[in-house]
Write a structure and sequence with these properties.
The protein is built from two helices and six strands. The protein is an alpha+beta fold. A six-stranded mixed sheet has the order 1-2-3-4-6-5, with helices on one face. The two termini are about 25 Å apart.
Amino acid sequence: MFAVDLDGSMIGTVTLDEREVRPDVAPVELGYLFLPSSWGEGYATEACSAALTWLAAARPGTAVALTTQTANVASMRLATKLGFTEVERYEAWGADQWLGAWSPPA
């Protein structure tokens, strides 16, 4: 888990969790949560990118999964910016979901 700060104040978190939900896709799942006041400023892109860079160095070759609701346009855009590719779409919790995978550069 990484805390994201802006000028000494915490504005969000980024997590890299080992999950067995979809080990066929990736052993690690990326998660993030930011304060609404920080949305749209690029902080999530910067923080998630840094976490993925850290993971690539700490555990070379480790793939990462990301899930989000398809209606969450900002999260879908973030997934694309980070280099995640779509694995599947499905319905859960009463909404359409998106599952993507990321592999570190060779």
